[in-house]
Design brief:
With 464 residues, the chain is an alpha+beta fold. It is 30% helix and 29% strand. The strands form four sheets. It has a six-stranded mixed beta sheet, with helices on one face. Strands 11-12-13-16-15-14 form a six-stranded antiparallel β-barrel. It has a five-stranded parallel beta sheet with strand order 18-17-19-20-21, sandwiched between helices.
Amino acid sequence: MTFGRMAPARFPLARRLVLWLPGLCQGLLVECDLSFRPESKLLVVVAHLAREEPTVARRVAFWTGRAGGHPTPLVSLGAAQGSAYRHLLAACRYHRLGVPPDLLPDALASAAAAVGISAAPEPDGAGPVLDLDEAGVWDGVIHDRRRARLFLPGPSTPPLGDEFGLRLHGPDPDRPLESRARVVDVVPPGLHGPGAPAGFTLKLPAAPQALHESLARLAGERTGARRAAPRYAVRVPIPVNVSLADGAEPAGLGVRTLPGRLTDLSQGGAFIATDQPLPPGTEVRLEIRVPGQAGMEAAATVVRDTESGMGVRFHLDQAGEEKLADLIAGLVTLQRRVLVVDDDVLARRIISDALAERGFEVLSAAGAAEGLQVLTDELLAFDLLVTDLRMPDIDGESFIRMVRQAGGERDLAIVAVTGSLDPFVEARVREMGADAILDKAAGAASLAEAAEAALARKRDAVDG
C-alpha cells in the first residue's frame, strides 16, 4: 500500500491504518516493510501475510482507501507494473524491513521523526473507526432510523459481518458523535436497478439519538434532495471515443466519431468534455481508455448538452454494471500526472521532486523524442507537461507544436521552462500552444507552484 504527500495532517491516517493491520489481518500478518521518500513524502508499506486470504485482502483494501492510500496486491502485478513498483521502492531513502507486528509503533515513530512529523500515539487496543464528515458528499446515502441502518455507497466495501466504530464529525471537532456498527449487507452494483451504486449497509446498535437525527438530515431524508448515486470527480484526463450508434444521424455533426474526456462519473452515467456536444436523445457508444487498466465500452444516451460537453446515461447489463464499478474504484485512486522533459539530469530531477511534493505522479524523459514516445505509450493521459526549451534532439518549441498539432492534445496543460526568458521567445512559444513559460531561475518550488497554477487555469478554461 502506498500513501502520497505524507504531510503532518495526513500522516496520522496512515499511521492508524498500519497500527490496525495486525487486527485487520486476523493474525495472518507476519511482518511489514516500511519505506519512505522524503522528497515526495511518499510512504510505502508492504505487509507480508502467512497465507492469502480474500476476506483479509478485501478488508485491508477498504481501510487503506479510507485512509487515503492505494492498495496494491503485489502478487497480482504484471512484469511492467512489478518493475515500476520496485523502482518506486528503490527511490525511497528510508527503509525498515521485516518489522514484526509488535514493533510497528516504534518503526512508525522513527519514520515520522525522520521527516520531522510528530503524531499523538494511538490508544492501546484501538480498532478501526469509520470516520464520516458532515461536509462530505452524501449522495446515495440512505438512513433508516426505524431499523437503525445506514447504507453507504462506494466503489469499495468491507466484508459482510465486520464490526467497527462509527464516528460522525460535525461543527464541533471536539464532540463527534460515535457508535458501533456492523456490516449486515453488501450490495453489488446495479442490484436495485440500472445505475444503482454498490455499497454496504451498517446496523447501528444503541446509537445515540443525536447521531440518528444528524444522519437523517444529511442523507436528505426529509427533502429528497440527494442524488440516487454519488458522482465521482475524475481528476486525471481519461480519453473517451464517442461513436454514433447505428441509425443515429444528428444534423450538422459531419463525423461519426468524436473525441472527449471524462470529467465525472457515476454508476448511472458520466459527463464528457468535448467541443462537439451531441443533442439530447442521441444514442452513442463510448470507448473509455484508462492507462494501466482495461477500460470499457458502453452504450449510452445523451441526456443533456452544454457548451463544454454532454451528460450521458449508460445502458448496461449486470456484468457491465460490475465492470463500471471496478472502473470507478480504479479511477478514484488515480493521481494527477505530469511528464517532465529536460535533457539536464539534475534539472529534471529537481523539478520532478518539487512536483511530486505537490502530489503529482511524475514521469520524466531525457529529451523531446523520448517525451513523445512516453505520451504515445501512455495514451496522452497526463494533466501537465513541463518541458525545457533548449534540448539537443528536438527543441522545445517544435516539441510543443508536435504535441498540440500532430498529437491533437488540446486539454493538456503545457508549461515551458527556460534559463533565459525572452519576451519574443515567450510570444512564439505561446503561439505554439504553451499555457505558460517560466524562468528556471525562480527555483524548483516556485516553478512547481506556477506550473500547478497553469494547470488550474487550463482546467477552468476546458471545463468552461
